[in-house]
Amino acid sequence: MEATRIGVHENKVRFVLELDRTLPYAAFLLADPYRAVIDLPDVSWAGNPDPVPASNPLILGYRTGQFQPGVSRVVIDLKGPAAIDKIFRLDAQGNARNRIVLDLKPISAQAFDQTARLESPDWKGRGAQTRATPAPATPPSVPQGDGRRVVVLDPGHGGVDPGAIGAGGRL
């Protein structure tokens, strides 16, 4: 990845990834907290992320890194619920590099719950979900032991990251 840009428009915020080659992508949204995610095949991240313009109404910040082997990820932290208005790829022309363009628009929390995963036809992503799955209302039953209490910490992040998995394979 070469660079990023954020543009503030009347009804949307545009997030642009500049790339050294054409890449397939998958994009989706997560809640608790609100995030937009772009998955890409393995890429090298060049330089530091550009600052987020204070005038934008949607983006708190963003980070990049390797999500899992073969998949790089851009996570865009949002100030509130948003929808992916458009996402598309532009091929290099003249001095312009290859780009992936993501347009976000603010929506209600109720409308956010109705959003769906968007992806380009040539990239299937690697296991990303449409939305974060809420935790079960009651914890799973635990086999009876010797009477000692067990405290379990789950540092999960939601979405495709289920958090810690116990020795018995339980989440």
Overall description:
The chain is mainly β. The chain has a domain at 3-119: Immunoglobulin-like (Sandwich), CATH 2.60.40. Helix content is 2%, strand content 37%. The protein has 1 helix and 9 strands; from the N terminus they run E-E-E-E-E-E-E-E-H-E. It has one helix at 109-112, and strands at residues 3-8, 13-19, 26-30, 35-41, 59-68, 71-78, 82-90, 98-106, 118-119. The chain starts with a strand and ends in a 52-residue tail after the last strand. 19% of the residues are buried. Residues 126-139 have low confidence and may be disordered.
Secondary structure blueprint with pairings:
Elements: E1 3-8, E2 13-19, E3 26-30, E4 35-41, E5 59-68, E6 71-78, E7 82-90, E8 98-106, H1 109-112, E9 118-119
Antiparallel strand pairs: 1-2, 2-8, 3-4, 3-9, 4-6, 5-6, 7-8
Shape annotation: globular
Number of DSSP helical runs: 1
The secondary-structure element order is EEEEEEEEHE
Q: Main β-sheet: number of strands, strand sense, barrel status?
A: 5 strands, antiparallel
The helix fraction, in percent, is under 10%
Can you identify the CATH class of the domain at 3-119? Mainly Beta
> Alpha-carbon distance between the termini?
34 Å
By CATH, the topology of the domain at 3-119 is Immunoglobulin-like
The CATH architecture assignment of the domain at 3-119 turns out to be Sandwich
Indicate the mean pLDDT.
77
Number of strands: 9
Spans of 5+ residues with little confidence (pLDDT < 50)?
126-139
**Roughly how many Å is the radius of gyration?**
19 Å
The strands making up the biggest β-sheet line up spatially as: 5-6-4-3-9
Query: What is the quaternary state of this protein?
Result: single chain
Strand content: 35-45%
Structural class: mainly beta
